[in-house]
Amino acid sequence: MSLPKEHDYIGLTEPSSMENSSSSIVSTESEKNTVLNLKETELRLGLPGSDFLEKKAGTGISLFGKDLKDEGNNGFSQIPLKNLVSGAKRVFSDAIDGSGKWDFPINGGSEVDLGNGGSENTNTLQSSLAGPSGKEIGNRNPRKPVEEKKNDNNSAAPASKAQVVGWPPIRSFRKNTLATNLSKNNDDEGKSGVGSLYVKVSMDGAPYLRKIDLKTYCSYKELSSALEKMFSCFTIGHCASHGLPGQEHLRENCLKDLLHGSEYVLTYEDKDGDWMLVGDVPWEMFTDSCKRLRIMKGSDATGLGMTCNLLSFLVMTI
Amino acid sequence: MVYSFPEEVLEYVFAFLSSDKDRNAVSLVCKSWYEIERWCRRRVFIGNCYAVSPQIMIRRFPEVRAVKIKGKPHFADFNLVPERWGAYVYPWISAMARSYPWLEEIKLKRMVVTDESLELISKSFKNFKVLSLSSCEGFTTDGLSSIAANCRNLRELDLRESEVEDLSGHWLSHFPDNFTSLVSLNMSCLGSEVSFSALERLISRCPNLKTLWLNRAVPVEKLASLLRRAPQLVEFGTGACSTEIRTDIFSNLVEAFSGCKHLKSLSGFWDVVPAYLPAMYSVCSRITKLNLSYATVQSPDLVELISQCSNLKCLWVLDYIEDAGLKALSSYCKDLQELRVFPSDPYSAEPNVSLTEQGLVTVSAGCPKLQSVLYFCRQMSNAALIAIARNRPNLIRFRLCIIEPQAPDYLTLEPLDTGFGAIVEHCKELRRLSLSGLLTDRVFEYIGTHAKKLEMLSLAFAGDSDLGLHHVLSGCESLRKLEIRDCPFGDRALLANAAKLETMRSLWMSSCSVSYGACKLLGQKMPNLNVEVIDERGPPDSRPESISVEKLYVYRTVAGPRADKPDFVWTMDEDGALRFS
């Protein structure tokens, strides 16, 4: 078995020869450049904690050996706080420089080796981490808010931050409560897209459902393309649109060939518990009243009070 | 002499032992005590549904009356655990239906419960009394109908914070007319309106009703009628209180509340119009728990209410209370034990309220009994944390969420290591800790050195290296649950402390730097652990071993690898092969 590659997630890249951690205990860089030696990782089932380390220190078999103990006694307490701070700041700036694991390229994945002389490993890490499939919408690099702050290229400073999944740690039912309250109390024009509104999306015939945050979209078009990406593994039909003039909905994005086979309709359950076709009301009204979404087979949707004569309706647009 | 006591005597003595710890200790004394104890254990708590199987539980404890089971990891609350991950309760219900016909209580947390399970519960246990579904999902109001219709001796139905598919409010009407045993009903998570007359009749005929948490759909003008029928209530949760204020509604409410001489806990208040709050003044002096976390009311109105609650022990509130309100709290409510402050607008870039670290410092100084804190804020300093630690060495739970990830001390721009270090150093009884803000490995050194009673630790965007994780795993002797997201912790600390993981309930690590190779190694070397890799990018085998896994969940178990994994979860096994069912 070959030696595993270096773990260089902060991107301080001097792919040095294998360092034992007994040297240079202070700087965090060397810590990371130490190669994971398989022999050192061989586990001994000793007692957890320092006893384990003490026993093994002499034989040098444990991963940390007495180095950590030394660090615990001497190294850390001697580090002036300033160095620690600069160490921490380096972490920030590394993220901005774009090297290392913690930085996803904003454009989504194909850019590799943003760092200086990044090792092969870094590239692999980046490209693998940056190429998600089936990831939940809104799952982004946690460092993104930092980047957005520091990048002057951003055209407009967003009123609300790029959202990281699950942060801040607030339960969904609280988020939905807040969203409703905020949209009612909100007078300022500047604020938009605040809060979040998670709704479940199910599709007839699909084995599982997903959750999406309606607040991350501004229009039916965005919602539609997001849903299409999410459920793209299932057959999506296209069709002509139905629409009333003067309303912002799916109409302008319609018209695909009808020959795609199965036809699906995007519906939603509103506050009163009724199932409605998506696209009839203005976007804001829709997000205010939508409780959940369902992509149903076109044949099931005929009872939904449509006035149009078309038998099937457009669901997904490109 | 112990061996001359007949079994019946020992059994009688053991019946006085209620804590699981005591019972576990007793069962280790000798074989005969083990046998006696297991036959008379009536309550079982299972902290992780995959740590043990229903069959093992039933085999050891054949006469159980009450079961409490927890499923998904805590981070599932924040959408970090993908849908379909697991924690299905049906296998448990079906096994217990066969073996525990006298089961009375089922309490579940973060589990997937289907209507089928609910129906099976309602039909299998003739003396069923208590159903508590906390943060559960997977069922509809049809399942509730089965419970209502069939559980003739039901005392408690608690659906707190569960996600229920709300088909209609009709389920409540399934309680039979001769059903009178209800003591506690929590339907606050439901959306649909229930038949109000059915609700009124239910309340009228259940004289032992002590707890009633309504859902949002019950409007404020209907509350008086309900309260008049249940003046014995101890805990009450309103619905939405947004109807425009009218004199008659208000005076009815005042009168109804004044009749409730036993009320200790209030909740609800969705969208409450501030003018309604004075209707509760007559009960304030007896109130010990107040949940205003859905009330978007400004600080002065909150203070008006809180200032009358001199016996308040527990307050949940939105950050509209602001520092000024917290100052008032600290002067009026000297008995306060628990404070939770939730953010009203967590996603905006700028603060919308004047709530800072100062509010928490003030409360820590003014409330000598404060032991449990959950606080969301936008700025923090080491000085404030040190002050809090010195003021309140009796803290047991301290969860601080500074909204911006990795925010430093706003005064000095330093990491918050020394602040949190002071917390763990002074608060020697600390059992639960959540960190936030800018943190280096140093804070973990402090935690490992001082937090000897710490049982649960939650980390996000913290630390510099494996040393941080190593400090925690090697130093925190009482650690049971560790959940980590987005921290630069990798293989070394994990593998070096593998044995520690067997002494804990579980470890969660997501968006860290643990490689697939290390996960495999851990799984191979530790047969008593389930090492589960969660990765929605496809099989980990399809990528190099050095690639970090998306999410890792490690837990001790005597049940072996689980058989109900979805296609994005892999168990790292001793034969080195990937296994998924």
From TrEMBL, chain A:
Family matches, as Gene3D superfamilies: Phosphatidylinositol 3-kinase Catalytic Subunit, Chain A, domain 1 (3.10.20.90)
Keywords carried by this UniProt record: Auxin signaling pathway, Nucleus, Repressor, Transcription, Transcription regulation
Gene Ontology biological-process annotations: auxin-activated signaling pathway; regulation of DNA-templated transcription
One annotated Gene Ontology cellular component of this protein: nucleus
Subcellular location(s) of the protein: Nucleus
Pfam annotation, one family: AUX_IAA
Chain positions covered by the region annotation Disordered: 1-33, 113-162
Origin superkingdom: Eukaryota
Domain annotation PB1: ranges: 196-298
SUPFAM superfamilies given in the database record: CAD & PB1 domains (SSF54277)
Compositionally skewed regions (Low complexity) per UniProt: 14-28
Biased composition annotated in UniProt, kind: Polar residues: 119-130
Function summary: Aux/IAA proteins are short-lived transcriptional factors that function as repressors of early auxin response genes at low auxin concentrations.
Protein family per UniProt: Belongs to the Aux/IAA family.
Complexes and interactors: Homodimers and heterodimers.
Protein name (Swiss-Prot/TrEMBL): Auxin-responsive protein
Lineage: Eukaryota, Viridiplantae, Streptophyta, Embryophyta, Tracheophyta
Automatic annotation (TrEMBL), chain B:
Keyword Nucleus set for record: yes
Record-linked InterPro entries: COI1_F-box (IPR041567), F-box-like_dom_sf (IPR036047), F-box_dom (IPR001810), Leu-rich_rpt_Cys-con_subtyp (IPR006553), LRR_dom_sf (IPR032675), Transp_inhibit (IPR041101)
Places the protein is found: Nucleus
GO molecular function, one term: auxin binding
GO cellular component, one term: SCF ubiquitin ligase complex
Membrane-spanning ranges: none
Tree of life domain: Eukaryota
Keywords: Auxin signaling pathway, Developmental protein, Nucleus, Ubl conjugation pathway
Any Pfam family hit: Transp_inhibit
Family annotation (SUPFAM superfamilies): F-box domain, RNI-like
Protein name: TRANSPORT INHIBITOR RESPONSE 1-like
